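Task: sequence design from structure.
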């Protein structure tokens, strides 16, 4: 059986006190009011140095990506690195303690730093990592991961109707996403769409592309949070895109063709640890 070390127990007790002081008294407003969870999460990160750990992890990831590109492996991710036991524990302990009182916060955190930032760090170019990845990992900005659509059900990729149409050096994005965690408040959105190449190919068989969007882009609308049965501390909403124009710099990996970077596999890989 795994047991915490004395140092890890001390960290756990400190985090437990933080949660008791900062989260437990605010559970009603976080879960049943209109208070987003992000200020609490950012304070947690600052208090326990998780933002600094994120910065160090980011620097290592960039170095690995640059090394893989210099070795002629552009488009491939660098070999994964396992976190040390102490760093893994420091990441896990806050999650455990938050779940005792407000598990929705953990979902909001995980989607922003795990799915949104994780996708960019795994599949993006160095320039894209630097442009969007660091701010998401440190929670300076909040991320959303937009794949689910109203009519796709569990077949998120096959049933996807959002489209990306080439127009010169740009793409024009259209579509509707729903049940998007952090969607109402996200600063950065990882958005999946089917390539509309004008060939009339069956929608289900078209290539899936991944784009990174910023709040405020013309034609992008973020809904108010849904009123759900629970977990309001994990804000969920819809995204509406109407002729949103983006450059290739927002196409993850900046290519449609590189294996393992864009397309259908990019989406599938996010479900594999």
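Answer:
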């Amino acid at each position: 059986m795994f047991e915490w070390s004395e140092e890890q127990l001390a960290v756990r007790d400190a985090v437990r006190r933080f949660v008791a002081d900062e989260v437990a008294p605010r559970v009603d407003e976080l879960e049943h009011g209109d208070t987003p969870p992000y200020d609490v999460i950012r304070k947690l990160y600052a208090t326990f140095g998780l933002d600094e750990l994120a910065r160090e992890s980011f620097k290592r990831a960039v170095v690995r990506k640059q090394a893989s590109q210099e070795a002629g492996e552009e488009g491939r991710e660098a070999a994964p690195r396992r976190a040390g036991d102490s760093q893994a524990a420091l990441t896990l302990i806050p999650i455990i303690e938050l779940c005792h009182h407000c598990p929705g916060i953990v979902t909001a955190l995980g989607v922003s730093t795990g799915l949104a930032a994780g996708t960019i760090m795994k599949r993006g170019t160095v320039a894209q990592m630097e442009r969007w990845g660091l701010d998401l990992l440190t929670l300076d900005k909040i991320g959303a991961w937009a794949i689910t659509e109203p009519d796709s059900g569990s077949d998120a990729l096959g049933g996807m109707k959002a489209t990306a149409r080439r127009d010169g050096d740009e793409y024009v994005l259209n579509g509707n996403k729903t049940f998007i965690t952090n969607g109402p408040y996200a600063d950065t959105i990882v958005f999946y769409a089917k390539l509309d190449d004008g060939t009339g190919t069956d929608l289900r068989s078209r290539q899936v592309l991944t784009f990174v969007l910023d709040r405020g882009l013309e034609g992008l609308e973020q809904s108010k949070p849904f009123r759900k049965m629970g977990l309001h501390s994990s804000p969920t909403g819809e995204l509406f895109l109407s002729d949103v124009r983006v450059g290739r710099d927002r196409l993850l990996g900046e290519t449609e063709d590189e294996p393992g970077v864009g397309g259908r596999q990019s989406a599938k890989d996010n479900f594999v640890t």
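The chain has two domains: 6-141, 144-269.
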